[in-house]
Amino acid sequence: MLGFALDDFMNPVSIKLFVELNFGFLIFAYWVFALPEKIQSSAALIYGLVIDLLFSNVIGFNMLFFITTSYIIHLYVFRFRIFSYFQLSVFFSGSSTIYTACKYLLLSPYNYSYIVLMVSFLITLVLWVGIYFVMRAFRRSFFSNL
Amino acid sequence: MARSTPTYTPVRNYAFGFILSVFLLFSDISYGTFAPLRGLVQASNLYAQMVSRSIFENVSNLLYSFKQNRNLTQENKDLKEQIHKIRTQEFIKSKEAEKSFEIINFQKTLISSLKSNDINIFKIASIDLRNYLCCSTHKIFLQNLNQVQVLENTPVFAGSSYVGQTKSTYLNFIEVILFSDTKHLLPIKSNFFYCDARGKGKPMLISCKLNKNIDDFQNKISDAIFTSGLGGIFLKDIEIGNISAINSISINEIEVVITLKTNPLEENFFGIIGSEADEI
Q1: Average pLDDT of chain B, as a whole number
Q2: Residues near A51 by Cβ (< 8 Å), separated by ≥ 6?
Q3: Of the candidates A58, A71, A78, which has its C-beta nearest B14's C-beta?
Q4: pTM, full prediction
Q5: Which residue among A47, A78, A87, B237 has the highest number of C-beta atoms inside a 10 angstrom radius?
Q6: What ipTM does the predicted assembly reach?
Q7: Residue B81 sits in which domain range?
Q8: How many domains does one find in chain B?
Q9: Is the Cβ–Cβ distance between B166 and B278 less than 8 Å?
Q10: Residue B17 lies in a domain
Q11: Mutation test of the interface with chain B: which of A53, A56, A69, A79, choosing the one with the most B Cβ atoms within 10 A?
């Protein structure tokens, strides 16, 4: 929720630099990756619905992407565990870029831009590592029993 | 060997979620099905923001008013302190003026009564009030800040009459024994007798014993009593008090009680004649 609020706050500024940030999506993806047995399809569906209601212009978009991402992560979660940070970064920033691309294609096709997608991909590649370590520290501090 | 990793959720749940999401998305994009719901949520969101902003503003105003109130209270306190300070200063100034005026008046009285210009004026430092009101020892201490040389047994003047004699000096203070002290003897006279009056140990009272019949003192109450000057200490003919009572001790002995003219408790300044005046 905080991630999406941060996106809402930062994207009007960052888009001038051809960057579309997806903190909310990345944070959700991290938690599914970290706690796959806790966050399952229903959680992804409900979380997506809440995000759609609060931050999106259409109902169903975040639901669709969260459930899809959740499924893919669940499917390959143990393979991801042996991935390097770079490989994880590529996967999650790629997912984020697809999310952004679909958002533009479905909701704002006139503003679709490959530059935005490419720059966002590169920036997210770096951001993911930061999000990963911050979220992991947070999880270990407050949810160490999970 | 397994070809794929185990998953926690059955595929059908994801499939159901996927289909539901697609359906909702399609219906919303194509027909705006959830536009009222979105509008309601956005309106609620805005309303919550307005309410929270209003609460924040109210709290902020409240805090500001508290702060302003505190500032005003502090300012009020400062102003009150200033007023009090100014009033105190004015009071001190007026008292200083009164004091100067009182000293000048007293000096004039002394000069006219004692016919001497060599007079030192001292302010009272303390009076042994406990003993003065109950017991036989009646003393006061005068401030001698300029450390004026004062001889022992010099007469002390206050108000419009003598009140006692210097006894000794300690540092910057002069000890004065009052007439009402039981150890003090004062040569006095009236129109028809002389005697040495001794302090009675009571405020403003002295007495002397005479070998006379009480009948001789008919209608003598409130007669004026003067210093006789016989002791060589006090100037003569200075009025010191009045006869207040005449008590019969025996057939041919009476006690004449004299109430002194000056109450030392009411005086601030005491005059002592300088040594040159004594020699005159």
Answers
A1: 83
A2: A1, A4, A24, A62, A66
A3: A71
A4: 0.47
A5: A47
A6: 0.79
A7: 42-115
A8: 2
A9: no
A10: no
A11: A53
